[in-house]
Design goal:
The chain starts with 6 loop residues before the first helix and ends in a 12-residue tail after the last helix. It has 14 helices and no strands. With 388 residues, it is mainly α. The chain is elongated, with a radius of gyration of 35 Å. Helices cover 73% and strands 0% of the residues. The longest helix has 37 residues, at 189-225.
Length: 388
């Protein structure tokens, strides 16, 4: 019995057969082309000329250019899902900052012996944190969802940390505000005993609320930056600064509105500090982020942030120049409060606009990939191929 040929011989015979078949097909195609060209003289040439004319513009002879790329995705769906949050979350950002700034204002009035500032700050803080709870529960849909967040404490989650901050701040702000009703309680009996104990309890609660206020003012900026929204995520260093400055400015606005000019010294100093932080952060997000700064400069977000700058500048100028005028101080306080509102809404709508346009997601990703390849000396997909 003859042994089978080696595997190498069988592979070479198979390869030779495939090569021969391909050569025969090529020769047959050449013969058909020659026959067609002889039967229809000049037809292939006319087709080539027509193809050349099709690739050129009529009259000018200039080649057509490839159209600009459009940033679309499969079936017209967005690259990044835009936030489902509505205006109530933007309002929540403002009321949380207002509560924090008002508690700091109340603590300043408490420590410097200015009862008008203390009273205005405590009452406003309670009203603002109550409004924040309403807006938050409205967004969550059911109050029980807030309670469910208290089952865990996760330091790496801004939402979990924010839930615990609100839980610690709310009762302290409420007790401090209730302590302002001491003068209206009777002096005898159990209510009289409670009235005598409330000032000391309110003093401790006010300081506790003021100690929690910086975290309450800035955690929302961290929360927005922790999302995938391009213009929020890239502005992670500036958003807490903007929100801290906005909280100070809004608290100062409450003091300028409610306190007489003789007691509004801490409010004026808060206004200057808050305006400096807010203007600096807003300028950075409008200039530092490159393409991702566009949503903060264009459309409704740009209009809101420009209005916020004007109102902040005018409010600080009025607070410093109108120290002896109650009317000027009140107008300055109203301008600072309005500036805080429009700044928060401008930041909110700017991030939403960046999520809806795929260009703000695709272009920065390509730039990061190209920069990473350049740093690692890797070839780029869009590099010019070598000449053959």
């Amino acid at each position: 019995m003859t042994p089978p040929p080696p595997v190498g011989d069988r592979f070479r015979r198979f390869r030779d057969r495939i090569t021969a078949d391909g050569r025969d097909r090529a020769e047959a195609n050449d013969e058909q082309t020659t026959t067609a060209s002889g039967g229809l003289t000049g037809q292939p040439q006319r087709k080539t000329e027509a193809s050349g004319r099709r690739g050129r513009r009529r009259g000018g002879g200039e080649e057509l250019r490839v159209p600009e790329a459009e940033f679309t995705s499969y079936y017209g769906r967005p690259v990044l899902k835009a936030p489902v949050w509505k205006w109530d979350i933007a309002a929540y950002l403002f009321t949380g900052g207002l509560a924090a700034g008002s508690s700091l204002l109340a603590a300043g009035g408490q420590l410097t012996g200015r009862p008008a500032l203390r009273r205005a700050g405590r009452v406003t803080a309670l009203a603002a944190v109550s409004a924040s709870a309403v807006f938050l529960v409205k967004d969550l849909g059911r109050p029980a969802r807030f309670h469910h967040m208290l089952r865990v404490a996760k330091l790496t989650s801004p939402m979990s940390v924010g839930t615990w901050i609100l839980t610690a701040y709310g009762p302290a702000a409420g007790v401090a505000a209730i302590a302002e009703a001491t003068g209206r309680l009777p002096r005898h009996g159990l209510l009289g005993l409670a009235g005598r104990a409330l000032p000391a309890i309110g003093h401790a609660a006010g300081l506790l609320a003021a100690g929690t206020a910086p975290a309450l003012a800035t955690y929302t900026g961290v929360l927005l930056a922790d999302t995938a929204v391009p213009s929020w995520h890239e502005a992670y260093p500036e958003l807490p600064v903007i929100f801290a400055g906005s909280a100070l400015a809004s608290g100062a606005g409450v003091g300028l509105l409610a306190a007489p000019p003789a007691q509004a010294g801490p409010a004026r100093r808060m206004a200057v500090a808050g305006a400096a932080l807010e203007l600096y952060g807003a300028h950075r997000v409008e200039t530092r982020l490159g393409l991702l700064s566009e949503p903060y400069r264009l459309g409704r977000p740009g209009q809101l942030l420009r209005a916020g700058r004007l109102l902040t500048t005018g409010g600080v100028a009025g607070a410093l120049l109108g120290r002896r005028s109650r009317v000027v101080s009140g107008l300055s306080g109203a301008a600072l409060l309005a500036a805080s509102v429009v700044t928060r809404f401008g930041i909110f709508y700017g991030g939403v606009a960046s999520a809806r346009d795929p260009r703000y997601t695709v272009v920065p990703q390509r730039e990061r990939v190209d920069a990473r390849r350049t740093g690692m000396d890797l070839p780029s997909d869009r590099a010019v191929p070598p000449a053959v």
